[in-house]
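Design request, tokens follow.
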């Protein structure tokens, strides 16, 4: 099967004390069992290498495999794909100090109804850091936001959970998307109106098996669900909620709502933040 190479520019906005950052994403797709890019792919990698030499920026490289075969060989294959991309970029003059992460993420379990596996998961992804003007971030944050549904404490019991369905994060990051703030503000309102309420914030992720958690490309660690739960906790603390009323935990992919993710909707359901009631007012 012909290898496809797509360059998708996704503006993932990240808050920072000194600047506003984003990432471009380069995705490279591989044949079944292969870890070498096709001949036509090298033009795109050459262009990337030249760009990084002219304007050095940090990049992160992740390799993946689909479900064909078994877990251990697929883990090795995903690593070979990531390092094949890394080695080629270094051969073309990209300094190792700019390659912040190179990792094989193993096999993805999403299956298609055919015998040829899932081509989307036979890929390597390169996240290329860039700086965004502050004005772009401000315009993005002013986008129209949907009102959040009301949280009804009267319908809940201790140890019950509610999913905050309108809280979303940028891909592979713990930064909250602007349209999520109405849901955060509703949670904040409930915490303020019920000063003895105590909760546990639980982060969940999609798309990862064989690891306790997914990679957070902001921290470089396998702690994405934990960092997302902490981000919600930090928002509440910043707005006056006592830390003693809040616990937070990352549960990784250990409690998926959809065991086999076949669609983006399946992945959205698993990629969530839930609130567990620890003490009712």
């Amino acid at each position: 099967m012909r290898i496809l190479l797509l360059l998708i520019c996704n503006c993932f906005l990240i808050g920072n004390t000194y600047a506003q950052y984003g990432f471009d994403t380069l995705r490279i797709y591989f044949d079944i069992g292969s870890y070498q890019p096709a001949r036509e792919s090298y033009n795109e990698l050459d262009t990337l290498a030249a760009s990084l030499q002219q304007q050095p920026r940090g990049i992160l490289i992740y390799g993946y495999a689909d479900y064909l075969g078994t877990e251990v060989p697929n883990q090795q294959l995903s690593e070979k794909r990531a390092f094949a991309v890394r080695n080629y970029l270094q051969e073309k003059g990209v300094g190792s100090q700019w390659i912040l992460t190179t990792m094989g993420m193993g096999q993805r379990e999403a299956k298609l109804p055919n015998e040829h596996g899932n081509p989307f998961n036979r890929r390597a992804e390169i996240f290329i850091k860039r700086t965004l003007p502050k004005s772009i971030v401000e315009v993005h944050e002013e986008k129209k936001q949907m009102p959040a549904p009301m949280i009804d404490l009267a319908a809940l019991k201790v140890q019950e959970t509610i999913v905050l369905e309108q809280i979303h994060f940028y891909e592979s990051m713990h930064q909250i998307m602007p349209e999520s703030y109405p849901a955060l503000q509703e949670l904040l309102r409930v915490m303020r109106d019920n000063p003895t309420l105590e909760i546990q914030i639980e982060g969940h992720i999609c798309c990862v098996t064989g690891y306790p958690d997914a990679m957070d490309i902001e921290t470089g660690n396998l702690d994405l669900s934990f960092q997302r739960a902490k981000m919600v906790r930090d928002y509440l603390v910043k707005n006056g909620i006592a830390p003693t009323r809040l616990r937070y935990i990352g549960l990784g992919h250990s409690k998926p709502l959809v065991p086999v993710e076949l669609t983006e909707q399946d992945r959205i359901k698993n990629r969530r933040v839930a609130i567990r009631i620890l003490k009712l007012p």
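Comment from the thread starter after seeing the answer: thanks! Residues 1-21, 132-144 have pLDDT under 50 and may be disordered.
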